[in-house]
Design brief:
It is built from one helix and eleven strands. By secondary structure, the protein is an alpha+beta fold. A four-stranded antiparallel sheet has the order 7-6-10-11. A hairpin with a 4-residue loop joins β6 (138-142) and β7. It is rod-shaped and about 110 Å long. This is DUF4352 domain-containing protein.
Length: 204
C-alpha cells in the first residue's frame, strides 16, 4: 500500500472543490474593471501626448513668426541705417532774397511777409547702390521749430537741383528755394526719406 502522500486524488477519493458562483462573478467583474481602467489609462496617456504635441507645435509656430518679424525688422533697420550713413549732404552757400532770377522772368514771394531762402547743396552717394535724389524731399527748420518744405518755385531758379538717380560715389549739386517768414532765422536743412531724416546739416 502506498503512503498517503503518494496517493492521488482518485485513490484518496478527493472530490474537486467547487467554486462558488459569487466568487466566479467577482473574478469576471475584476477582469472588466481592469479592462476599463486600462482603456482609461491609455486614453489619458493619448490625450496627454496630443496636448503636449499641440503645445510644442504652437510654440514652434509662434517662434517662427517672431523670428520672421525680428529678421524683417533687423533687415529694415540695417537698410535704413545704411541709407542714412551713405548719403552726404553739404551746404555750398545760402542767402536770403526777395526775388528769384529765372530763365525768362523773375519770381517774387507770395506775400510781403515772406522772403526766399536759396540754398545751394551738394549731395554725394557713398553707398553701393543707387540713390534717388528728389529736390522736394528737402526741408528747412527754423528757429521757431517750424518745418518749411522746398518750394515749387525751385523750378523757376537757374541752376536748380533736379531729380536724378545717383550711382555709387556720384554727386549732384544745385539750388533749392524755400519761402520763409522774414523775421524767422533758418537753423538747418535736411533730406527727408521714408524712414525719417536721411541727412541733416546746420545752415548758419
Amino acid at each position: 500500500m502506498q503512503p498517503a502522500w503518494k496517493q492521488d486524488s482518485k485513490a484518496a477519493n478527493i472530490q474537486p472543490r467547487q467554486v462558488p458562483q459569487f466568487e466566479a462573478a467577482g473574478a469576471q467583474l475584476d477582469g472588466k474593471n481592469y479592462q476599463i481602467a486600462l482603456r482609461r489609462t491609455l486614453t489619458q496617456v493619448t490625450l496627454l501626448v496630443l496636448v503636449v504635441g499641440l503645445a510644442g507645435f504652437a510654440l514652434m509656430f509662434r517662434g517662427s513668426l517672431t523670428g520672421e518679424k525680428t529678421g524683417f525688422a533687423q533687415f529694415k533697420t540695417q537698410d535704413l541705417k545704411a541709407e542714412r550713413d551713405a548719403v552726404r549732404l553739404m551746404v555750398v552757400e545760402s542767402k536770403r532774397t526777395n526775388e528769384l532770377e529765372g530763365w525768362i522772368f523773375n519770381t517774387k514771394p507770395r506775400t510781403d511777409a515772406l522772403t526766399f531762402l536759396t540754398v545751394k547743396v551738394r549731395v554725394r552717394n557713398t553707398a553701393r547702390k543707387n540713390y534717388n535724389l528728389d529736390p522736394f524731399g528737402f526741408s528747412v527748420f527754423t528757429s521757431d521749430g517750424d518745418r518749411v518744405n522746398a518750394s515749387p518755385k525751385t523750378r523757376h531758379m537757374s541752376g536748380r537741383l533736379t531729380p536724378t538717380v545717383l550711382s555709387p560715389n556720384e554727386e549732384a549739386e544745385g539750388f533749392l528755394v524755400f519761402e520763409i517768414p522774414k523775421r524767422i532765422r533758418p537753423n538747418s536743412i535736411q533730406i527727408n526719406g521714408g524712414s525719417g531724416i536721411v541727412a541733416k546739416v546746420n545752415l548758419f
